[in-house]
Each structure stands twice: as C-alpha cells, then as structure tokens.
Design brief:
homodimer; alpha+beta; ten-stranded antiparallel β-sheet; 15% strand; nine-stranded mixed β-sheet
C-alpha cells in the first residue's frame, strides 16, 4: 500500500541541505530525457545506451487511477500493485464474487473480466514547448488574464498534437513553471484482470505494517491490455528475472511519482505544516472513523467501503509521517538554510537580485488564496492530482455528486471554445473523462447516504449552521435527511441515464429535474468563483517560481531533476539494509519470515494467512526472497513501478516506502529511507506453488508466448 | 456502554417545546427532595411513602469514576455496569490476567481483588444553603472577585460540614445558579471486585450496536464495599426481583445523570453546535484513529488501550448523535421558540423586563471566554466533569502529566488558605484526590509516548509551530522526541516516588528535577491565567442564569427539575416499545435473540459469543428476558443506575440509551427515545447457568446472607 496515488496536497523538498547541483547519494526522480548518466558512471560505472533507456521508458505504464506498472509479456500482460489494482477489483466485485478478499485467477483469456474504467498510458515521446507556451502569455497581464492565456495556448498545443498523432497529449509543467514539455502517450482503455492474490497476503500486516519494514507482502496484481478486442501486441516489455536482485546490487525504478514540492518556498512549507496537512489529517481521521464504524456493522458493509477505507488509512499514516517530518526541527532548519543560501546567492549577483521579490509575491499569493480556500476545498475540489481520478469536493463525499457535477459542467464547458474550458473538459481529455463518467462501477445508496450525510455535517460545522450557502445546501433539512433525499431522489447512479443526459443538449440537463444535479447547479457559481481566484493566484506563484528556477539554474547548473508531477521518472540505488534503533535491518526477507510473523501473532488479523498459504506451506521454498529494500528515491505514485537490473530485467516491483521515507517529500535521506519492493522470485514461486498459475508464470517468464 | 461518565462539554435542554411547568410525558431527572409526586399520582396512581424514597436514595451508589450503581446485599454487594467497572478491570489486569477479556469471578471473599482507586458515594442528606452562599457574594463585585468570594463561602460550608459529620460534603449548584444545596455522602474507598463477565458479552455487538436497539448485552459488574477490612454492613439495599419487569410496567431509575444543559441560552447552544461539539469530535476522531492503529499492532497493545479506546468510541458516537440533533432544524426551531416564549413572557411583566439583559451578558461572557478557550482546553483542562476523574489537558494526553500537575499544584495550593484554593485541592476533597493520586494503576511507557507525541503534535498544529508557548513546550525537539524524553525521564510512574514528593515540602518538589514536573511548571502560569478568565466569565454567566431562573420560577412555577449535575436524580417511565422506520420494536429481547444475532453474523467480531456462552447454550432458558427499554429520562452518568418497580425491587440496570435518545441532551422526546437496561432475570440466569456463580446469585437474591 502506501504509495498509491495521491490526494496529496502540498509537499516539499530539499536537495540535501546544500545547494549542490549534483544530487546527494542516490537522490533524484530523473527525467528520461535528462537521465543521471554522470552519477551512473561515476558511482556505479554504468553507462546505459539510448536503447536501454528507450526500452525501459516504453515498458513502463501509468495507471491513471494513480499508480505505475510495466509490461511483462508480448501479449499485453501488465503487472502493478494489488493496491493499485484494488480500485478495479472493488468495482468488479459483488457480495457473491469478492475478488478483493478471495483473489482471482483467469485460467483462460476468455475468463479475464474487463475493468470498468481503467486507463493505462505509455509515454511515447517528449517535446520541449516552453518557448511556445511562454510566448502565449504576454508580459504585464493580471494573474487571471495570464492564467487564461496560458490555458489557451496549452489547449491549442494539446489539441494539435492529438489531432496529428492520435496520441493522448499532455503539456506538462516542470521545474514549477521553468519548463513546459509536451508528453505523448499511447492509451489503453480496454484493460482486463488476469490475476490478483487475496488482499490478506497482498496487504499482509495491514495498517500496522504499512510503511514499515521488514515486510511480507505479495502486493501484486496482473492485468492484460487489449486493443480491438484482442490482447495488445507489445514491442517493449521487460524480461523477467526469476531470482530477484542480490544484496548490494544496483537497481533502477521507472515510474510515476505523484508529486513532490522539494522546491517550495519556506512560506509555502510553513503553510503546509500549520494549515494544509493538519486540514487533510482532520479529514482522513474523520473518514477513517466513519468508514470503520460503517464497515463494522456487517461483512457486506465492510466489503463496500473496503477500498475507500484502505485509501483513507494509507493517507492518514502517510500524512502523519509527513507532519512529523515537518515538525522535526532538524528537517525544518535544513529547509530554512536551503532557502537562505539561494537567497544569499541571488543577493550577491546583480542580475538575480531583483528576483528576490518573487518570494514576497508567492507569500502574497498565499494570503490571497487563503481567503477562498475553504470554499475551494469544500465546494470545488478535493484537490485531485494531475492525471489522477477526479474526486468530489469535501462537502459532498459522494460519487453521485461527482457524476452530477461532471454532467453539469460538461454541458457548460462544451459550449465554450476549447481553450477557455477547464482542462478536464478540453477535447484532448474527452476520451479519458468519458471512460470515467460512463463507468459501470456499482453505486451503493447506503454508502452514499452515510458518506454524504457526514460530509454535509462537516460542511455545516466548518462554515457554521447559519452560513447562507450552508442553509441553501441543506434546504431546511438536517444533513441526514438531506442526504437521504438526494441519494434516493437522483437517477445518476444509472450509467444509461448519465449517458442519455450527457449525449443530449444542455437544455436536456437543465430540464432533468434531478435533485443531485440541482445541488451541483446550486453550488456552481461560488465554486467557480473560488477556483478562478485560486488559479489566478496559482499563475502568480508559477511565474514567481519560474524566476526563482531561472536563478537556480544559473547558480546551480541545470543538471538536476524537477519536482515530481505524476510523469515518468527514473530513480536508482542498490539493495541496501539500514540501522534502526541500534539494530541492523537486513535488506531482504523470505517466505520463512512470513510464517514466523504469522505464528508470533497466533495467525490473528491483520497477521493471519490466507487459507491457501496455510495449506500449501509445504510446497514453498522457504528461503525464497520475498520483499527487499533499496535506496531509490521514490514517492506516492511510484506504486507498481518495475525494479530492474543493469540488464533491464524485471527483478521486483515497488509497493511502499519505509516509515523513514515519509520525510522524502521534503528531503532526500539515504541513511534510513528505503523503497520497499516485492521480489520477482517470490512472484514466480507464489504463482506456481500457491495459486496453480503455472501458465501465467510461464507467460511472464517468457517460457510460452501463449497460455 | 454509552452512558458512562462524561468528558462531555456543553449540552442543552428544552422542556418539550412549551414552557409548561409540568413536564411532558415521563420527562424529568427529579431531585429526591422534590420528586414528581403529582405526576406519579395523576398518570400512574402511585403514591410512594417518604420511606420508599429514602430507601431508594440510600440504596443508590455513585461511582466517582463516572457512573451509578446500587447496593444489592446486606454485605456490601454493589452492582453497576461492566463499562463503569471497566476502569477498575483495566487497572487491575495484566497481560497474564486479562479480566477485561476473560471476565472474573471471586469464588470466596478472600479472592476479591481491591480496586486501585475506586471511590463510591452514597447520598445521606440534602440541605439548602442558597441564602448563605449568595450572602457571601456582595453585589457589585467583578466576575473575578465574585468567583473568588463564592469559592470562599462554598469552601467554608464544605469544610464545616466535613469536620462536623465526617461525611464527604459537596455544595451543589442547581438551576444554573438559582439554588445551592449541600450534599453529604458516605464514602467507600475500599472496593473489591466480585464478578465481571467477558467484555464480549458485556459489550456484545461492539460499536455497531452501541446506542442501538434491539440489544443483547450483559453489561454488569459486581463489586463489594469494604469498611475496616470487612464487608460493609449495609442497611439500605435493593431487594432482587428474579423475573424482571413486564411490558408496560412502571419502573423507576435512581442514578447520577452527568450533565444536561436543557436551560442553556440559544447563543450558548449555537456555540455548542458550531464550535464545541465539533471541537470535541475532532479530538475523539483523532484519538480513535490513534488508539486503533496502536492497538492493531499486537494483542498486548490492544489490551493496554482497551478501556481508553472504548471510552473514545463511545464519546464519538454520542457526540455524533448530539450534533445531528443540533443540526436538525426541527430541534433547533423548538430551542429557538422556547427561549423566545420565555423572553416574551419576561418582556410582558415589568418586574422581569430588566432581566432580559441577562441574555446579552451571557453572550458577552461567551465572547470573552472564547479568547482564552484554546489555552484553557489545551493547557488547563480537558473539561473533566464535576465528580468525575480529572483528565489531563488536550496538549498532554498522558497520565504522567496528570500526576505532574497534581503534584505541582498540590504544593502550590496547599500553601494557600483553604477557601482560596482550586476546588479540587480543598480540604474537603483531599481524601478523594489522594486516592486517585496514589493509585497503583499501571503506567505503560509505550502508550504514554504514543499518546503524548500525538497530543503534542495536535498542540503544535492548533497553535502553530512558531507559537512561543509551543516552542517552549517542545524545547527544540520534535513532538516524538520530546515525548520520548519526558516519558523516559520522569519517575512519576512510580507511586512511591509520588507519595514521597507529595508528603514533602514544596521545596522538595521544586528540587525534584523531574522533566515532566518541569513541563507542568512551564505551562502553569498561562494555564492558570486562562482558568482565571474562564471562571470569572463563568461566574458572570451563573449570575445571569440565576436571574433568568428566577424569572422562570415566577412564570412557570417551581415544580420542575434542574439540569443534571452528576448528583442523584429520580426518573421514571414504563417498559415500552417504539416504532422505527415503520417497524414496531418490541420492548424486551431474550437469550434466544442473542444466539440468533450471533448466527446471522457467523459468530464473527463484534458479534461473536464468548466460549462459555457457546458451550453452555443448552443449559439456558432461551426465553429469559435479556434487555428491555423504558421511557425514563436518562443521560450519561446514569450508567449502572438500578431500575426498580413500585415495590422498590431491583428489576434491571440501565446501561445505554437508543440512538433516538441522543437528542435528550437538549429535548425530551418520549416518542422514540428509550433507556436501555439489562433485565434482572437475565442476570440471575447467567450467573447460575453460565458462570457457575450460584453462591453469588443466592446472595443477591437474598437466599443466603453469606456465601
């Protein structure tokens, strides 16, 4: 778990405590068009060819639900984490067929069930469009005008590229606005489930072991990409290594870290520490309690909220760790010093001295943004991440509201010129949006009522019961009664109804007379107003950060890496143990360790073993390496990233970081921070001995082309 | 669970929606010196004798840890709820002897283990001291001076009474300051455990079933009071009825409702709704998550935080329900109308017109209090309830801090004249304070570190990392490091060390050089300052409420009951079912229903049965009534209250209210709100058939004087 996606807000960073242009240790989430060749060579005497890089890039897969993966067969097999696949497992399960709890294995291709709304992306090319984007924004514009102008030129570039190549085309902001790149992706939206283990072994040890090490998790899930109803023919896929990496062996990680903000200013990080992260934790705490209490009522209740609960618990533990890092005076002093040194350097050079004012502009933009933040968070967005699935705003913890807003906004936005729309409604994103909107995932009215009633209560206490907008939203009812009225009254749970309204004209939507749609309409104006302010201030920040970045490039050199943005990055580092509380932690665990841990806890949850693992214990080679740690610099979104060796072979799959890695959001720390992976050897062994999935093992090991 | 004690803040009330002097339905938590004789006679043709009332009063027991109980044998047997006894069960358990999980039965008196710090009180007399208290407060004093003067005269009355009678003597504020009564209690502080069932049957159904009905809980715990090392000889104890009450039978409840504020102003209730209850819920949510995550790591972790976790979950569900009531426009409109009618009545009478200003004075006092509330809550008090155990303030979620503050303050306060001390350090409370301070309850450093680190984090985010007081408290360390330093450095976990310092002079405390004691000293001045302001404003409120009360008495007559104050009250009402979602809920459940519920949930937690209950199913009479509901008006603190019939026999024991009763804090609602009890018949049957405790059953049933 742990490193899945990212409803993550502000994070931070720091290149060690120094401003060194060269990264510290095995630091860095590097661009594939600017890989750390010097570090590879100097520290590891490794010189990859362009073909090596190209092959790894094109074997890497982005899960748009928020995670990473890789192709591992010519016939479209994609391996990712169980917790990345969990979203799909939950959506295609029912009370009768509980794939989350029981796992799944398709013995033949005909038995591979289709995901309801899963989109995979493979990065095909990168093009620098910085000049064109900046040329589209005249100097001297207000924040709002500049934001609009930038949106326009980006939309134009994306649309041209999409029309020309047919590929998904995203303009990506790097170095906080210093660089704009056009990324072109091959999309796969017919994705089918091949294999998943039981959640109990995928997430063995549950919340207590999440973000901890030593670890014993088979956190994998295997899908197959299809094209035109047939398994996709894949040119670039990773060769499987059945033995896994050795202690000390150099490994590489190719994946999609969701977001770091290692270059945020001190004032933005202070806001993260004192306001934003506590705000998020208050939300996760309340949701964890809510979903826990709901789930405890029956097995079916628990099943219905399982994925959501897991996500919430994961975020809670992650942000707890991040907050602890921000409240650590040593970390904070390093953050402080880092900015001070850059400021000093800028002050000492006449050509950059004027740019110091950029820091104040960011601070002012923070203050201006703060005024609209409550409305922005509660009514406009729950801060979905670039590329990740849109989530309903905090006041409306409801999939039905999500659909209502989508429908309403699609009507409003499609009527505008492409460049003036919100990015999510631009032509270049239309296929992805519709995949999600027409999803056949089940909507559970009981869950919807409970979560919506809770978020309406949350809203009422955040703004006060007498607040005019609160009164309008509640419409003279209690939160529970209002939630019941909305959920039982709306027809938006039916995909056919959504499709019908979506395909009609805006007037059809206006006359639909659906209560959830009316609610979305009711809050649309204040929500849009808050977003407008937010985005204008964000543009102001972006321009200021671009100035700071320019100074930094000039002072430090450009051979560095930008903050993570859920785009493909290359990290690296050897398999390496560490010391914790005076004790040496070995880098690799084994199956034997798994059984030992279960025995120590009397096989009680969350340390219990699935039935199959108890029954087939005798068949397993107990010394098979199970999980391992390496020094690679990773973060949320890297979940499911392939771990490869110098020969570009698949030797493992990232699924977590240890508790000491939670500081990586704001500082790279090689001493204890570790990336945690499942060993490829364990996957082969488990598929064959536990799951009778020899045919699948043969396919990923390249022993047969066809199962 | 559910109705245990009360870290409860502001609650509210409303005598139906009308200002009628006679209570609505079976409303009321009546004083024993002003019982609802008229209602008894008119509605139920029942006329109890003074002896009947005296017997019930003196058979009733207050658990100072926060709950109620009653004597049920001549040899000192006291029955209460399992969740009231849980505090003691937790404190006398260990990893090896887990009385919470496994239950306990002392086969002989020699085997009855002594509680670490349990104090029982029996109300012996009530005396009106209103005139003397008010005479001690000269008109025209400032809030601070008046608060001091009132404290002085109250301390004097209490000390005189204690010196004269030897009884615990508390001056009790009734009608929000309209009346002051002197309550004299017989204390028992040698209390021993006789019987407890397994938590799994005492709290069957766990959090999902808490505050719900139908119900199947054996929520009982039996202690024995001792005097001079021998079982106490009890004159007033309740005769046991082995068949329980019939459907429709009138019953009485004699217990200690913790607190209602049914006479709070609308402005105070709005503060409760928008500020205080959300504030409390944010604390309970974060603690529920914290303790849940800690407990999931191992059985022993779970055991160590079990009682605390239960209490937190209970409060979270309770406040969720209370907030839902406050956010219900129907409830709110009734609250509004109630105040408006009283204001109208006051306006229409010249002699009360001037008193309307009291509402504004309360509002002003709220505003003045609000300025110090964060410091007051985080550094001075977690708002312990009158009579309930003191709890550490929110910033220091730690028993060790509690001891440190006690020690520091005891030294400071004892040096002052008795009347000028904080109430908890007055001579009249000395025995109770020392019982708690010298408790041998275990202190678990691992738990302390986790809870203290979390509350320090909470504090840092509430005030901001740069706040001067926060910086002083953290002393340049992260919350986790600071907590570790404090917990490992202090010696206050050792009762002998506490006793030694406590018995020494203040200089001994000053030179103790204990880090936790130093922390208590560090925050003492700001904490005291906040409390001073809080109490001065509280005095202002009390005077204003006293004026409103005077007007209300004159307009409505005085035949009403005051808000609950954790003092003895009499409630009543018949055993009666109710309708919920169109379905009729029968008032009584049976053992058969318990087994059916377990079967429906595959005997999985929290619906699993203890081993004994599975093995001995065949011995039980399945039609034995198990739990029942009545219309009695109860609230937190009533847990463990005896339920009696007209013959003054014990027919059951209160342990909960249903979910519809959570509104009772602010409105009496007979339609659906119900008090939930264990049937006396089930207790007899279970003791004999499940627990082989025939001797104990004989004693409570009066069949033997001596086991």
């Amino acid at each position: 778990m742990a490193f899945h996606s990212s409803r993550r807000l502000v994070i931070c960073s720091l290149m060690s405590t120094a401003l060194a242009a060269t990264a510290f240790g095995d630091e860095g989430m590097w661009l594939f068009n600017n890989p750390p060749l010097q570090q590879f060579k100097e520290k590891y005497q490794f010189e990859p060819t362009p073909q090596w890089l190209d092959h790894l890039q094109k074997s890497s897969v982005r899960f748009n639900s928020g995670g990473s993966g890789s192709f591992v067969s010519a016939d479209g097999l994609v391996i990712t984490n169980h917790h990345v696949g969990l979203d799909t497992l939950q959506k295609i399960s029912s009370e009768k067929n509980n794939y989350v709890r029981d796992g799944f294995y398709a013995k033949s291709r005909a038995e591979e069930p289709k995901a309801t709304d899963l989109e995979l992306n493979v990065l095909m090319s990168i093009e620098d469009v910085t000049e064109r984007v900046n040329a589209g924004v005249q100097p001297g514009l207000s924040g709002e005008e500049a934001s609009k102008a930038r949106g326009n030129v980006i939309a134009q570039i994306e649309k041209e590229s999409k029309d020309k190549t047919g590929l998904r085309s995203d303009v990506v902001t790097l170095y906080q606005g210093g660089v704009y790149n056009l990324y072109r992706y091959k999309r796969y939206d017919d994705v089918r489930l091949v294999f998943a283990p039981e959640e109990q072994i995928a997430f063995y040890g549950g919340d207590p072991d999440n973000f901890e090490y030593p670890r014993f998790d088979l956190d994998i899930c295997i899908f197959r990409a299809y094209e035109n109803g047939q398994p996709a023919k894949i040119e670039h896929f990773l060769k499987w290594n059945t033995t896994g990496p050795a202690d000390g062996e150099l490994t590489f990680v190719s994946g999609h870290p969701g977001r770091t903000d290692r270059q945020l200013t001190v004032s933005e990080l202070a806001e993260a520490r004192d306001v934003e992260v506590p705000y998020l934790l208050s939300m996760y705490n309340r949701r964890e309690v809510l979903l826990g209490a709901f789930g405890a009522r029956s097995f079916e209740n628990a099943r219905r909220v399982q994925q959501d609960r897991r996500g919430v618990e994961n975020n809670r533990k992650r942000y707890d760790g991040y907050l602890a890092a921000l409240l650590d005076p040593e970390v904070w002093s390093a953050i402080d010093q880092r900015e001070q040194r850059l400021r000093d350097a800028m002050n000492s050079k006449p050509e950059f001295k004027g740019m110091i004012a950029a820091y104040d502009r960011i601070k002012q933009a923070q203050a201006d943004t703060a005024k609209v933040l409550p409305v922005y968070h509660y009514f406009e967005t729950n801060r979905g991440r670039a590329g990740a699935t849109y989530r309903a705003p905090r006041a409306f913890y409801s999939n039905l509201f999500k659909y209502a807003r989508r429908l309403l906004r699609a009507g409003e936005e499609r009527a505008k010129p492409n460049g003036e729309r919100f990015p999510e409604y631009r032509d270049s994103n239309r296929e992805s949006l519709e995949l999600d909107f027409f999803s056949t995932e089940p909507v559970h009215p009981d869950v919807e009522q409970v979560t919506l009633a809770d978020s309406l209560t949350d809203m009422a206490t955040a703004f006060g019961f007498e607040d005019p907008l609160v009164r309008q939203v509640l419409a003279g009812k209690s939160p529970a009664d209002r939630a019941a009225e909305l959920v039982t009254g709306t027809k938006l749970g039916d995909p056919a109804f959504r499709r019908q309204l979506y395909s009609g004209d805006p007037p059809a939507i206006a006359s639909a007379n659906d209560p959830m749609l009316e609610l979305a309409r009711l809050v649309d104006a204040p929500a849009r107003a808050a977003r407008k302010t937010f985005e204008a201030q964000d543009e102001t920040k972006q321009q200021a950060y671009a100035e700071i970045a320019k100074a930094r490039f000039a002072i430090e050199g450009t051979s560095s890496y930008p903050d993570a943005t859920f785009t493909l990055r290359l990290s690296y580092g050897p398999v390496l143990g560490y010391e914790e509380n005076g004790k040496q932690i070995a880098p690799l665990t084994t199956f034997a360790g798994l059984y030992q841990r279960a025995a120590e806890h009397n096989n009680q949850p969350p340390f219990d073993l699935p039935k199959r693992w108890i029954e087939r214990k005798g068949k397993l080679n107990m010394s098979t390496p199970f999980n391992f740690v390496s020094t690679a610099d990773i973060i949320g979104g890297n979940s499911g990233s392939p771990v490869t060796n110098k020969a570009n072979e698949f030797v493992g799959i990232i699924f977590d970081g240890n508790i000491q890695s939670l500081v990586l959001d704001c500082i790279y720390a090689e001493k204890q921070a570790r990336a945690v992976s499942v060993d490829s050897a364990a996957i082969s062994e488990a598929l064959r001995k536990i799951y009778d999935a020899g045919a699948l093992a043969d396919e990923i090991e390249g022993k047969t082309a066809q199962r």
